[in-house]
Structures
1.
Amino acid sequence: MPTALDRSRVLLTTAWVGSSWTIAYLVAPTLFASLPDQIMAGTIAGRLFLLESWLSVFCGIVIMALVYYRHKQLSWLVAGMVVCTVLGYFVLHPFMAELRATGLTTADTKWKFGMLHTLSSGFYLIQSVLGAMLVLNGPVHLDAEQSRAADH
């Protein structure tokens, strides 16, 4: 039978991955499609991604603490997701913000910004796939534990 910690892990994982997907694949595109001012849309999306990044680090640490000893394979997924967050947001974003502050007026700065944005988006996509694997594997591991417990 799943413990309270197992249930907490599944709930926290679902909230983390769900919020990540919602912001990246629903909210941000909607902002850019709906707001007439692309700078405002980018500012709001950037703020949401900042909050999501801190949420990712927090959830990653807590989930890692919950899974490390009992579910080593899940801990690799969690670690991968946190690494993607750190690289995509905390490493690349400051460079993107610096370029954005210049006004993106030259072809060179636009190209650099586009390249960094593409890399950041790639890390986010990898994080999304790892998140899907984590969500799908979480209940499977709980079911396997229930089966093993019933056998004993």
2.
Amino acid sequence: MTQTTPSFTRPSFGQRLLYGTPVIGRIAREIAQDVNNVFYLLVVVLTLEILGFLLWGPVVFTLTALVLVPLMFVFFVVISWPGMSRPKV
């Protein structure tokens, strides 16, 4: 009878960096375990937007858009990176 031990694959540097970030890492680990947690995150963000609007007014939407600009820039760079659109063999 052979004893098998589970193989442990070490996460990449990017995953370790992401998971090591205090607030974002917790959310990323939760989403990695269950994809449906994204919907809970969207509800929380929408609730925070509404509460921020009630407290500070329409300025919250401007600040949210200002925060999303660098994220969209990174998104466009990632989707246009050469060699990323080739299918994996």
3.
Amino acid sequence: MNYDAAKPLALCTGMVLVFAAMPAGAHHAFSAQYDSEQPVTLEGVVVKIDWLNPHAYFYIDVEDEETGEVSSWACELTSPVGLMRRGWTRNSMKIGDMVVVDGILARDGSALMNAQSVVLVSTGQKLFTRTPAEERLSSTGGDQQ
């Protein structure tokens, strides 16, 4: 092998070894993160939207009616591709929209939920609802994908 061909081969081999040594991100089952025995309905203002894989998230500020205290909640959806297959676009929900979200609370008690339906308060339009297959998987402890 000549010297010029050895450099790219050594570089590629080194990159493969570096990536192989990195921990892989695990995709956990629905039941590992969420407790299907803890449904919740929240109404809040959309403050952030992350249209990312493997799951899209949106964040809402929810005001406690009794204390007036505002808490921020993360709401997990399915993947962006799954949302697009249901007719969503990046503009279906906007910062400042008031939404009602039905979902399942995180097991760890954090302000995180798996959104099962999302409704725009201004129009009553249902933006998102889980498919029957996703409902079956979440109730049996499988992954929502």
